[in-house]
Design goal:
By secondary structure, the protein is of the alpha/beta class. It has seven helices and 14 strands. Strand 10, helix 5 and strand 11 form a beta-alpha-beta unit. The structure holds zinc ion (ZN) (2 copies).
Length: about 250
């Protein structure tokens, strides 16, 4: 299983850090977890187009986690080269209604006619998608927010927090995982409610007992030396401070 960070940034535009999005590749399947702005171009840098994505998971519908769904859907209607495979989307309860309102807001310019969008809403459960066992769990950010844990046939596991504050849900999703991907929004002395800091990320990683911790979703005040220093006071395992296009094989 290979995970590539498409965007290690946030809502604040930054030429070095695109907004949140991750590509998970397993057995020829290409899955997105979140799809923030800049991600469509990041995929192109990897040689991946709107034809090549098999499924999209959304942790929540904040713009920095889903904006590039708009150009993706519009490109997929390009009359000379339309997408023809259905597009499955998985997200928390209420996403279908949200999606339909978005289609209406764009006067159906995004609504597909050469393929179908198939939405599955997950609450707190485990299901199999594309040969991966996927567990969704509540995290503390907005009502629709869900974190995800993916396990492949060999039992390798990766968990994604999306945006969250410290909560039992993300510790549980990350329990014993090979790779735990946590948002790390701000330094501890600038803590923002419903987001994590380096100290809390380290604490979650320690309590979850993950192998490797990958931090992402850095707002501009984050200083990488200090993020690592604070985080490793809590967690003695491997810590990766991601950049855009950082890739990890597990
Ligand atoms: Zn965010
Ligand atoms: Zn958010």
């Amino acid at each position: 299983m290979k995970i590539t960070v498409l965007g290690s940034g946030t809502s604040v535009p930054n030429l070095q850090r695109n907004s949140a999005g991750y590509l998970l590749e397993e057995q020829g399947c290409r899955i997105l977890i979140d799809f923030g702005y800049g991600n469509v171009h990041q995929l192109l840098r990897l040689g991946i187009t709107y034809h090549d994505i098999d499924r999209i998971f959304f942790t929540h519908p904040h713009p920095d986690h889903m904006c590039d769904l708009i150009p993706f859907l519009f490109a997929s209607k390009y009359p000379l080269n339309p997408r023809t495979r259905d597009l499955p989307i998985v997200a928390g309860p209420g996403f279908t209604d949200y999606f339909e309102r978005m289609m209406e807001a764009f006067n159906h310019w995004l609504t597909p006619d050469s393929y179908k969008v198939r939405i599955t809403e997950l609450d707190e459960e485990t299901r199999t998608f594309d040969g991966l066992e996927v567990t969704s769990g509540k995290v503390q950010h907005i009502e629709m927010s869900r974190g995800f844990r993916f396990a492949n046939a060999e039992g390798k596991t990766v968990a994604f927090s999306g945006d969250t504050d410290y909560c039992a849900g993300i510790v549980e999703l990350g329990r014993g995982s090979d790779l735990l991907i946590l948002e790390c929004s701000t330094p501890d002395d600038m803590k923002v409610e419903k987001h994590l800091t380096p100290q809390l990320c380290g604490r979650i990683a320690r309590e979850a007992g993950c192998q490797t911790l990958l931090l992402t979703h850095f707002y501009p005040p984050c200083d990488m030396d200090s993020v690592r220093e604070v985080c490793q006071r809590e967690f003695s395992g491997k810590i990766i401070l991601s950049d855009d296009l950082t890739a990890v094989d597990i």
